[in-house]
Amino acid sequence: MARKCSISGVRGQFGHRVSHANNKTKHTFLPNVQAKRIYLSDEKRFVRVRVSTRMIRTIDKIGFKETLRKFGVTIEQISC
Q1: What does pTM read for this prediction?
Q2: Interhelix angle 64-71/53-62, nearest 10 degrees
Q3: Which of 31, 46, 57, 66 could form a disulfide with 62 if both were Cys (CB 3.0 to 4.6 A apart)?
């Protein structure tokens, strides 16, 4: 499975590692994606999602349902 956040859609980025001598080598910057179980209190069940750590902080701050509404995603689209 690709490293992609199922809510925000954040993926890896490409760039260069630059040495002190200004040598450039290709490098992939991968997102910090974690598998997380989130409890839906109104449905009384857990949902397993792969989200970035930034999304985990957002979910903690404004709630899971509000985060999904903010990013225009439904629960059916993100279930692992």
Answers
A1: 0.81
A2: 120
A3: 66
Q: How far apart are CA 58 and CA 54, in angstroms?
A: 6
Helix, strand, coil tally for the chain in percent (to 5) = 30, 35, 40
- Per DSSP, the three-state class of 16 is strand
Show me where the domains of the chain are located: 13-78
Apex 66 CA angle, 60 and 68, nearest 5 = 100
Q: Which CATH architecture has domain 13-78?
A: Roll (2.30)
* Position 80 confidence tier, pLDDT thresholds 50, 70, 90: low
